[in-house]
Automatic annotation (TrEMBL):
This is histidine kinase. Its EC number is 2.7.13.3. InterPro entries: HATPase_C_sf (IPR036890), HATPase_dom (IPR003594), His_kinase_dom (IPR005467), HisK_dim/P_dom (IPR003661), HisK_dim/P_sf (IPR036097), Histidine_kinase_KdpD (IPR052023), Sig_transdc_His_kin-like_C (IPR004358). One of its GO terms (molecular function) is phosphorelay sensor kinase activity. GO terms for biological process: monoatomic ion transmembrane transport. Residues 1-32 are annotated as: Disordered. SUPFAM superfamilies: ATPase domain of HSP90 chaperone/DNA topoisomerase II/histidine kinase, Homodimeric domain of signal transducing histidine kinase. It comes from the Bacteria. Residues 47-263 form the Histidine kinase domain. It catalyses: ATP + protein L-histidine = ADP + protein N-phospho-L-histidine.
Length: 270
């Protein structure tokens, strides 16, 4: 990963699209509502089964080959098998973490805890926590100022920032660059994360925030769980903020996070 920081002007963005949760159509009779719930349940079960079985199959296959043929394998091949199993284990761990996070958020078991935040170290920490994924491309930080000391839940905000950067790295296309503008304006701190991929079809901009919804990807290895953006939206609501998405006029998508700024008093936490 190449990580750079500068203080140039912000990203140029196209017309804004706010994301609202999709609600069932009004006027459904009980039988139609039941059918809708059953369809959503089948969709969820299919997605969960796929996301559990796919990495497990790779882990088992890699370790079986390693166990049966270890003496005949070159050092490079042995290392490749171990790395493949380890990569899928990380993927499985992330999926389980997302399921648990979603359950906690939906049950309202998570409550914000305010502390002093500074966006620069918070974003850098979020990037570090991405592990090997952060090396997929260049991440450029653009500090626009004003967000050096304010109050929010840094753990929750860092989680959202990490999810959005992860999403950008997976969709950045042939130009593996992610631009992050951040700062504060008025009574809000903001983080704009832009990838350089194909962007998002206008008719999918709302759907991507629904659970287990994924855009079609050629790179199945990097496909997400379909939970990350749902978790991000829930957390931003919990923080009293919001998440918005738009396509950049040139290329790629831009996800914007806005969180209320409660200015921190001199001397640190309250």
């Amino acid at each position: 990963m190449s990580l750079t920081t500068d203080t140039h002007s912000g990203l140029v963005m196209d017309t804004e699209v706010k994301v609202d949760k999709a609600e069932p159509a009004p006027g459904l009779d009980p039988s139609e509502e039941t059918q809708l719930k059953e369809a959503l349940y089948r969709q969820m079960l299919s997605a969960v089964s796929h996301d559990l079985k796919t990495p497990l199959a790779t882990i088992i296959g890699s370790l079986e080959v390693y166990t049966l043929l270890e003496a005949k394998l070159s050092e490079e091949k042995r290392r490749s098998l171990i790395n493949s199993a380890l990569s899928e284990a990380y993927r499985l761990d992330k999926f389980i973490t997302n399921i648990l996070d979603m359950a906690k958020l939906e049950s309202r078991a998570v409550q914000p805890r305010e502390e002093t935040a500074n966006l620069t170290p918070l974003i850098r920490d979020s990037i570090t926590r991405l592990g090997p994924l952060k090396d997929k491309g260049e991440i450029r930080l653009h500090d626009l100022g004003g967000a050096e000391a304010f109050h929010t839940d840094t753990v929750l905000l860092s989680r959202v920032v990490g999810l959005i950067i992860e999403n950008a790295l997976k969709h950045t296309g042939k130009a593996p660059v992610v631009d992050i503008d951040y700062g504060a304006s008025g009574d809000e701190a903001f983080v704009h994360v832009r990838d350089h991929g194909p962007g998002i079809p206008p008719d999918k901009m709302r759907a991507i925030f629904n659970k287990y919804t994924r855009l079609q990807k050629q790179d199945q290895q990097n496909a997400g769980t379909g939970l990350g953006l749902s978790i991000a939206e829930l957390i931003m609501t919990l923080l009293g903020g919001r998440i918005e998405v738009r396509n950049h006029p040139e290329t790629g998508a831009v996800f914007s996070l806005y969180v209320p700024v409660h200015l921190a008093p001199p001397g640190g936490d309250r």
